[in-house]
Design a protein that fits this description.
It contains 16 helices and 17 strands. By secondary structure, the protein is an alpha/beta fold. A hairpin with a 2-residue loop joins strand 9 and strand 10. The longest helix has 17 residues. It is globular.
Length: 443
């Protein structure tokens, strides 16, 4: 298959990222299983057994931690595969080797291999299972030293849990994906704890005493915990990012520059440094840390893509993420008139999301439909905005992200701000329109 045929074949498979569960459904009642992905990687020769892995989960920050960890390991001289999800614009973004996404020709070859063995599987694999297997296969093909693997949702029943992570990283636990993981933080923590394998090292970013035992009970050989064994001692905004002081179990790093916005990125950096050191079994040199972090980019996460007006993209898709965005706006960006472009998925409660973003600072609220079958009707978001006290005359709805972004640029002055948020689907579409001038082809 060429890349066009391969993408078409992939898109014909069930994609819960895109469609979600039917309204009112609960995945916990549908006997989740790893049987399909286990059978698939077995047919491919168990590629995940040919290299070591670092496995990451958490409600927020996973992708940033994965990218930072990979950068640190690459700068330390290792060959590194990185698997993240979802993508913003092109599916190739998910599968990366030494900082470069898989090219179209290679991706087509990988998908063709999986298509060739599909008939021998006990059941048809999902979109995410296929991409997970493709990533694990490619990392074996190019003989990586280590793969940094981010879960899709949860942990226990996520397709990535066919890997046996030498290091398991948990960034944090908040309420999200309740239809998959359960409505309480305790249930969510239990599901995420499934990536912690006996004998591994656990880098635990969640500190809630009610949740920590759920991770400790998994049999890790060693546990390093945020604020005790690793953490942040100073965290200051700087031009284009942050300057932070962080510590790990074996070292301290002062005045480290991160070209990323948001105070939470310091926590992500501390977790990534700790994960890298736990994997390497030694501290990372200050020069490696400086070089690696200076090169890190995290598109769609508090990313500035324009000036006059300031245009900021942030994929906050849950209440905790919205609070982090709000804090970053308050600390790092000058207070000015703000146009908020927001598009939510149907699982999100619009009042909660808007309230977390402090709507009283919004000069205009432009509600749009993300490019996903799971999109929440923008009229519902607009109604929530009115309920929260935004003048209805300052609220507008749009059927596409492109239209909302175009309107935002037309009505926002050079000394004001445009903030696009609510979903990675919304941000991906906005990024493509703003940076590349069109709709993404890889979603």
């Amino acid at each position: 298959m060429d890349i066009g045929a391969a993408r078409g074949w992939l898109d014909a498979h069930v994609n819960l990222e895109s469609t979600g569960l039917p309204a009112g459904a609960d995945r916990r009642a549908t006997a989740p299983t790893l049987d399909r992905i286990e059978a698939l990687v077995d047919l491919l020769g168990s590629p995940q057994e040919s290299y070591a892995e670092i496995h990451l989960t958490g409600t927020n920050g996973k992708t940033s931690v994965a990218r930072m960890t990979s950068a640190l390991l690459e700068a330390s001289g290792l060959s590194v595969g990185t698997y993240t999800s979802p993508h913003l614009e092109e599916v190739n973004e998910r599968i990366v080797w030494n900082g470069e996404p898989v090219d179209d020709a290679t991706l087509a070859q990988l998908l063709s291999r999986i298509a060739d063995v599909e008939e021998h599987l006990p059941a048809r694999p999902s979109y995410f299972e296929i991409l997970t297997a493709a990533a694990l296969e490619w990392f074996s093909d190019v003989a990586v030293d280590v793969a940094v693997v981010e879960v899709g949702v949860g942990g226990t029943w996520d397709a990535t849990n066919v890997v046996d992570g030498r290091v398991a990283v948990v960034t944090n636990v908040s309420v999200d994906h309740v239809e998959y993981l359960g409505p309480t933080r305790e249930q969510i923590a239990t599901d995420k704890a499934g990536i912690v394998k006996p004998g591994s090292t656990l880098v635990l970013g969640e500190t809630d005493p009610a949740l920590v035992p759920r991770f400790l009970d998994r049999g890790a050989a060693a546990v390093v915990t945020r604020d005790e064994d690793f953490g942040v001692t100073a965290n200051r905004p700087a031009h284009g990012g942050r300057v932070v002081d962080v510590f790990t179990p074996d070292a301290r790093y002062d005045h480290v520059y991160l070209p990323l916005h948001g105070a939470h990125q310091a926590d992500n950096a501390a977790a990534a440094l700790t994960a890298a050191e736990c994997f390497l079994g030694r501290p990372v040199s200050e020069q490696v840390v400086s070089d690696a972090f200076a090169a890190v980019r995290s598109p769609g996460r508090l990313e500035v893509v324009g000036h006059q007006p300031l245009v900021l993209l942030d994929g906050a898709h849950n209440v905790a993420g919205a609070h982090a965005l709000r804090a970053a706006l308050a600390e790092e960006f000058p207070e000015s008139e703000r146009t908020l472009v927001i598009g939510l998925l149907r699982e999100k409660e619009p009042h909660e999301m808007l309230e977390a973003l402090e709507p009283k600072h919004v000069a205009r609220l432009l509600c749009c439909r993300p490019p996903s079958p799971r999109a929440l009707d923008p009229a519902e978001v607009a109604a929530a905005g009115a309920d929260l006290g935004i003048d209805p005359d300052r609220i507008e709805t749009y059927d596409t992200v492109d239209d909302a972004v175009s309107r935002a640029r037309a009505v926002t002055g050079d000394d004001a701000q445009i903030v696009v948020t609510g979903s990675l689907y919304t941000v991906g579409a906005a990024r493509h329109a703003l940076v590349h001038g069109g709709s993404p082809s890889g979603n």
